[in-house]
Design a protein that fits this description.
heterodimer; A: 79 residues; alpha+beta; 2 helices; 35% helix; B: 231 residues; alpha/beta; nine-stranded mixed beta sheet; two-stranded antiparallel sheet; 11 strands; 22% helix; cytoplasm (chain B)
Chain lengths: 79, 231
C-alpha cells in the first residue's frame, strides 16, 4: 500500500525557497501570485494493507524522521 | 582532557578540529567513525562540520539516526561536554540535544566568508577564556545556518542565558547586515541548560594559528582545555 507524506514549512516559518520561486515566477511575467511555499513529498510503499494502520505508521515515521516538527508540518495521504 | 571527534560519511572538517584541539590541549583527540563505540572515559565529544550523508532529507537528520549518536545521547545524559560546529550543530539539533531548527540561509546562498561573533555567555567550558561582550572573527561556510525557534523558545534561551554567541559587526553591534544567514535574533550559537552542550554555525577551529590568518578562535579550545582537566 502506498502512502504519501507531504512535508511543508510551518506557517510563520520563513520559506526562502518559496520566496525565490515567487520572484522567479514574477520575472517570467506570471502576475497575481500572492505567495509560494515549497515543501517535499515522500512516497512510501508499505507492506501494510489496512489503510488506517498504514496512515498511522506513516504519521509515526513523519514525526520521528521525515519531518522536523519544529520547522515543518506534515500530512499523510493514502491515495 | 580526553576528547573524541566523530566523523560520518561526508564529514570534512574533522582535521581542522583535530588541529585546534591538539594545539590547545597538547593531546591528540580520538578520531571515531560513526560505526565505532564511544569510549567511556571521555571529557569532550566533538561533532565537526561537513555534509554528513550528503545532507539528505535535512542537514544532520541522517547522522542523528546513526548508531554512535545513541552513545552520544547517553554521554549527554551523564553530563558530558559536547561541541557541535556547523553540521555538528545541525546534528545536535536533529538529535534534540539542542532546541530549534536550522533553515536554509535567508539569501538562499551558500555563505563562505568571515563573520564576527559576540560572546553572550562567558564562564562556560566553551567560553571561559573570553569576557562577556568580547567580539571575535570566525570563518563560516554553510547553506543552512538560519537559526529558527518559536518565540517562547527564544525567550527562554535569552532568559536563561543560553545564547552563547550572536552575529555582530566587528564593533560588537547586533545589526541586520552582520546577520548574513538571517538567524532569529542574530543567534550564532546556543547552549544546553546545563551549559555542557554547545552548538554554533561558524568555525572557530579554523582560526587557531597565525598561519591560518589569526588565532581568534583559539580561546574556545583553550577554555575547553582549562575547564575539562582529566583526572
Amino acid at each position: 500500500m502506498k502512502a504519501r507524506v507531504y512535508v511543508m514549512p510551518k506557517t510563520g516559518v520563513l520559506d526562502p525557497q518559496g520566496k525565490a520561486i515567487g520572484h522567479a515566477l514574477e520575472g517570467l511575467g506570471f502576475a497575481g501570485v500572492n505567495d509560494v511555499r515549497a515543501g517535499k513529498v515522500i512516497e512510501l510503499d508499505l507492506a501494510e494493507t489496512d489503510p488506517a494502520k498504514a496512515k498511522a505508521a506513516a504519521e509515526d515515521m513523519a514525526r520521528k524522521l521525515l519531518a522536523n516538527t519544529v520547522i515543518e508540518s506534515f500530512r499523510v495521504e493514502i491515495p | 582532557m580526553k576528547s573524541a571527534i566523530i566523523t560520518f560519511p561526508g564529514t570534512n572538517r574533522e582535521r581542522d578540529m583535530r588541529l585546534a584541539l591538539k594545539r590547545a590541549t597538547g593531546r591528540e583527540p580520538l578520531m571515531l567513525f560513526h560505526r565505532d563505540e564511544l569510549p567511556k572515559d571521555l571529557d569532550l565529544v566533538v561533532l565537526p562540520g561537513g555534509f554528513s550523508y550528503g545532507d539528505y532529507l535535512r542537514c544532520g537528520a541522517m547522522a542523528a539516526q546513526s548508531p554512535i549518536m545513541k552513545d552520544v545521547k547517553a554521554f549527554a545524559e551523564k553530563g558530558g561536554h559536547i561541541l557541535g560546529v556547523c553540521n555538528g550543530f545541525q546534528i545536535l539539533i536533529e538529535t534534540g540535544l539542542l532546541p530549534g531548527g536550522l533553515l536554509r540561509n535567508a539569501s538562499l546562498r551558500f555563505l563562505s566568508m568571515d563573520c564576527h561573533m559576540r560572546v553572550e555567555r562567558a564562564g562556560t567550558a566553551f567560553t571561559s577564556r573570553w569576557q562577556k561582550g568580547a567580539v571575535f572573527r570566525s570563518p563560516m561556510a554553510h547553506g543552512d545556518g538560519n537559526y529558527f525557534a518559536d518565540d517562547a523558545t527564544l525567550d527562554r534561551l535569552e532568559g536563561e542565558g543560553l545564547v552563547a554567541f550572536r552575529y555582530t559587526n566587528e564593533n560588537g553591534d547586533v545589526t541586520e547586515a552582520a546577520n548574513r544567514n538571517g538567524s532569529a535574533r542574530n543567534i550564532a550559537g546556543i547552549l544546553s541548560p546545563n551549559l555542557r552542550i554547545c552548538g554554533l554555525m561558524p568555525h572557530p577551529e579554523d582560526l587557531v594559528d597565525p598561519l591560518m590568518g589569526g588565532t581568534d578562535g583559539l580561546p574556545m579550545f583553550e577554555s575547553l582545555a582549562e575547564s575539562l582537566v582529566s583526572a
